[in-house]
Q: What sequence folds into this?
């Protein structure tokens, strides 16, 4: 059979910023009904290439064609009008608008010269239902979980009837059930002849969904595999350009001494109820569960970010039950939140300032902070945590992995007793994930009690001494490491 013509064809695409070339002559073809996985570490050039294809960034040289015709979108709007849509890793929703308004923003449906809200809500509802999301399309986006917002972004793309779809980390905030719903939609799109570029750091997903794999490194396409079921080790070694012995480091044995005791913690909104557990000194305590299980709500309440209706929190034998984040912080308990860009760092401020904000008592003298002292303090922790950046550099200029290291650095500078990590490696490449896992183990070896919440089952299994599984706001069970595996965790998560 004759191979069909590609939907998208790229020839010698280059992109430079000043004298620095970040894309070095990329060639790429995407065919109808095909999922091409675009893989690489942060900084490999995946996002730049995707932004070129979607019209956000203009290439410095090279040619593109779409359905055989020259293709050179000057804006994302032009790309969408020609049938190319992109779902960004960083959420682009407008919180003060409804779900339906967000789905159709910039292309509102009109009837008799007025916005046809009924038609928009009906079509938005159809997209939401296809993804298993049972939320009224008239509801405001503000206050929705990160996972639900990600599903809305995907529903938005489904309404575009695109011929080429770029998915940048679409499952980063999703659990297993929601991911499988998305995969079923992708199979339907493939059957309709849609071409898909799929970017993900979850390499096991690639084995399920990809027809072909293109690996990028340092702005170049370095290797291509003509199938998706390539061993993870082979993919990782192509991405990082070196042999990788293992992703997860050895887990230290915790003390018998209990650092944190949580007793019958309950949310006023019933997102979780009657949760009891303890975390020992030097233990990594994992929390798993499907989307909506109450994991994030639990740790936010535990660290004072959300209210508690009932229950107690005891730290080192002292009742603390924090009513605000500052209470938790002063008692030695810190939270690294799931959305680092909105809640973890101030993007427009420098790395040094971000680290300093959490350590003002250490830095102030007579109510003043000197730039010299701030930068000397920050440089110590930039070096300690391997942040690839300098103190004066804005956090917005860093990769996701380095932004996460800044969040860790600012809190760990306070030498906390308990560190709570909510989705610590969301949207982070394999190399950076490995270094963050090493930091987690370093904390545990230092006697810190660490709580890790993750929707990545492989991750929570790989880093935890014990795993607490939540289901629909309830504690379904706590598994010792030797008893925890994919099956045992999922059996509890689906109770």
A:
């Amino acid at each position: 059979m004759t191979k069909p013509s590609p939907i998208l064809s790229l020839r010698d695409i280059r992109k430079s910023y000043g004298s620095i070339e970040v894309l070095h002559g990329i060639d790429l073809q995407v065919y109808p009904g095909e999922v091409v996985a675009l893989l690489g570490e942060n900084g490999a050039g995946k996002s730049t290439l995707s932004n070129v294809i979607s019209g956000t960034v203009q290439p410095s040289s090279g040619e593109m064609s779409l359905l055989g015709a020259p293709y050179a979108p000057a804006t994302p709007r032009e790309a969408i009008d020609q049938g190319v849509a992109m779902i960004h890793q960083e959420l682009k929703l407008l919180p003060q608008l409804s779900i339906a308004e967000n789905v159709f923003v910039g292309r509102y449906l009109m009837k008799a010269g007025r916005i046809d809200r009924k038609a928009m809500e009906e079509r938005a509802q159809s997209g939401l239902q296809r993804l298993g999301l049972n939320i009224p399309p008239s509801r405001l986006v503000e206050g929705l979980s990160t996972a639900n917002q990600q599903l809305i972004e995907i529903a938005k793309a489904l309404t575009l009837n695109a011929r080429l779809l770029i998915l940048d980390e679409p499952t980063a905030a999703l659990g297993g059930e929601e991911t499988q719903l998305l995969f079923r939609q992708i199979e339907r799109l493939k059957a309709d002849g849609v071409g898909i570029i799929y970017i993900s750091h979850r390499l096991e997903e690639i084995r399920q969904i990809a027809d072909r794999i293109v690996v990028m490194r340092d702005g170049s396409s370095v290797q291509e595999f003509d199938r998706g079921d390539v061993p993870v080790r082979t993919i990782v070694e192509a991405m990082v350009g070196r042999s990788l012995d293992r992703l997860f480091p050895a887990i230290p044995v915790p003390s018998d001494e209990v650092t944190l005791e949580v007793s019958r913690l309950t949310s006023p909104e019933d997102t979780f109820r009657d949760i009891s557990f303890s975390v020992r000194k030097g233990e990594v305590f994992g929390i798993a569960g499907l989307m909506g299980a109450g994991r994030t709500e639990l740790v936010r309440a535990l660290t004072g970010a959300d209210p508690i209706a009932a229950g107690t929190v005891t730290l080192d034998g002292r009742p603390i039950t924090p009513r605000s984040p500052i209470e938790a912080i002063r008692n030695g308990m810190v939270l690294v939140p799931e959305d680092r860009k909105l809640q973890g760092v101030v993007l427009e401020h420098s790395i040094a300032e971000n680290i300093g904000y959490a350590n003002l008592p250490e830095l102030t003298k007579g109510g003043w902070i000197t730039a010299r002292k701030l930068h000397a303090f920050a440089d110590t922790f930039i070096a300690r945590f391997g942040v690839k950046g300098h103190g004066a550099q804005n956090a917005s200029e860093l990769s996701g992995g380095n932004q996460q290291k800044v969040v860790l650095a600012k809190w760990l500078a306070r030498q906390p007793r308990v560190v709570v990590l909510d989705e610590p490696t969301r949207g982070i490449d394999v190399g950076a994930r490995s270094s963050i896992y090493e930091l987690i183990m370093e904390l545990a070896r230092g006697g810190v009690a660490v709580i890790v919440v993750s929707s990545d089952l492989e991750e929570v299994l790989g880093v935890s001494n014990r795993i607490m599984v939540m289901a629909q706001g309830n504690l379904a069970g706590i598994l010792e490491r030797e008893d925890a595996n994919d099956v045992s965790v999922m059996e509890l998560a689906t109770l």
